[in-house]
């Protein structure tokens, strides 16, 4: 099974397998640019264009997998934790969840795809304690759009996740390699995308804070277009290669890096003022714009918190086809795709 992340700027594909010397092995991956305007605010506006990019990505990475795991953006999903009586049969939980869901979903229940997960006991009662249940619902059209894209590329979608949950799967894998598996450490993950930065703060494999803010790589791209008369596609390409005029670093890159470090510092202050927590032990930067030169150092200096780029492939074996140097630059953008690929190994 391949994990597929559909974002506004690119399609990302990751395939994992069981390793021989490590638990997991990265078999192959690909990142393929997507036509501008094909995906807007998480909505697929041009399915054929997205499917074309996905087809190219599958061909380039050489996978023979036919099953796929995809994810919906958090804005397309309603999630709610509820308490239900323990000890019910599966079909009874389905009825109960559907009844409860109708209270929280602002459109007819027959227009949504609905699922649930029993998280564990919700009370300490000895006889059939209540259980905490996470329900998730999305408009059927949102799910169907992604299913259609996968099918146009010759794949069979078998998992539909939620992007923040897929990201968390990758983060949990990485924190497992920290001393004591990261227990007791407050870790802030900043995923810097094209238009937004998502903030996830984790303690003991539990999310204790989530937020999105308007900062992303598109701001730097737009400045390149404005200052140098490039097309957006040229600007994206030159951003990666560094093939830009001498004044680029001083006039555009440095202000962008400073803005990013400032915004991350503000997000941490918001975390401190809106939760009982007063510290962060580690910052991990992910997303396609996290690899901008100087950002890691600027964030560490601004926040006074150890900061590094996050690779979801930490501790994994790499297949012979993977170029390590290329992977170092690409890995921070592959968190969601890697988290989705890990769903292959769900019990």
Automatic annotation (TrEMBL):
InterPro entries: ATPase_NBD (IPR043129), FtsA/MreB (IPR050696), PilM (IPR005883), SHS2_FtsA (IPR003494). Residues 1-171 form the SHS2 domain. GO terms for biological process: cell division. Pfam families: PilM_2. Gene3D superfamilies: 3.30.1490.300, 3.30.420.40. It comes from the Bacteria. SMART domains: FtsA. NCBIfam families: pilM. This is Pilus assembly protein PilM. It comes from Zeimonas arvi. The lineage of its organism: Bacteria, Pseudomonadati, Pseudomonadota, Betaproteobacteria, Burkholderiales.
